[in-house]
User: Fold Enoyl-CoA delta isomerase 1, mitochondrial from Denticeps clupeoides.
Amino acid sequence: MASVLRHSAKFTSGISSSLAACARNGTACAFPCHAFRHRNSSTSSKIRVDLDSSTGVAVMTLQGPPVNSMCMDFLTDFAISMEKLELDKNCRGLILTSAVPKVFSAGLDIMEMYGKGPEHATVFWRAVQEMWFKLYSSNMVTIAAVNGSSPAGGCLLALSSDYRIMADNPRYVIGLNEAQVGIVAPFWLKDNMVQTLGHRQTEKSLQLAQLYSAPDALKIGLVDKLVPEEKVLSTATETMAKWFSIPDHSRQITKSMMRKQTIDKFLSNRETDINNFANFVTKDSIQKSLGTYLAKLKKKKA
Ligand SMILES: CCCCCCCCCC/C=C\CC(=O)SCCNC(=O)CCNC(=O)[C@H](O)C(C)(C)COP(=O)(O)OP(=O)(O)OC[C@H]1O[C@@H](n2cnc3c(N)ncnc32)[C@H](O)[C@@H]1OP(=O)(O)O
Assistant:
């Protein structure tokens, strides 16, 4: 990542230090409180992170136009940002959102899977796994503020968060449409979806590669709440306050208990999953599907 965390915090009063202490200790604190904030910012080409140490909330803004697709740079920036936040005692919660109009994330960058050899596939897939693992197993409260369409890998970010708020716009879609692209959602992402939607709904969603409009996503429980687009971020911040009212240690233990089985299965099968991906994605038939899908995406514009 090109940039470093810049410490621009200004300690201006005792109030701010007690709020910061509140953030560190995981005790409930009434916020939003806009006075005397401590802000740390970190910007890479694809991702911006703003941590407000006075509230303990970091906002990670995806800023890779045109569609926040997850290329290697994106995945590397994401992993580094997550590591830094996880280690930062001032950070208790993370909000994910997008600066790209109408798109949260278009998912994996198909160009990273098209026309590349097995070595690249291996490195790329490990990075994809790492993104999911870091978010799914995070100690922080994670909230996806989905302010645009969120297919495939975009939906992965939302699913692996603790709570999902989406802009109430029927033109925005979310879901795991991998089968449509000619690829298959990995078992750990499937497991993640089963936990959210249940087995039957997941089976239909995956087999039919369904992308749900925001209202339909709410109906099936793929997102937790719809709000007007301009309120997505503020609602995420308000929701964070509710999650922060629970002591960190008990919430974290509960989260890891709920997610342990999926994480253990992932860790035991991680290398096999990488090999499967590298073998699968480099097959001629899969390359042909990816090529056809890419051409369709490009043709849409013409
Ligand atoms: C059994 C063994 C296991 C094997 C495992 C197999 C692998 C499993 C992988 C599972 C996990 C995730 C998979 C993915 O994430 S694949 C990506 C799927 N994504 C999509 O299908 C979304 C495609 N994009 C869209 O639908 C739209 O772009 C949008 C997001 C709704 C936005 O629409 P828009 O009108 O605003 O923008 P648009 O004109 O379509 O796009 C602008 C340019 O961006 C290019 N582009 C879009 N999406 C991608 C992408 N995902 N990767 C690369 N490039 C993308 C698009 O082609 C346009 O380019 P250009 O300007 O025409 O050059």
Summary: The chain has one domain: 13-294.
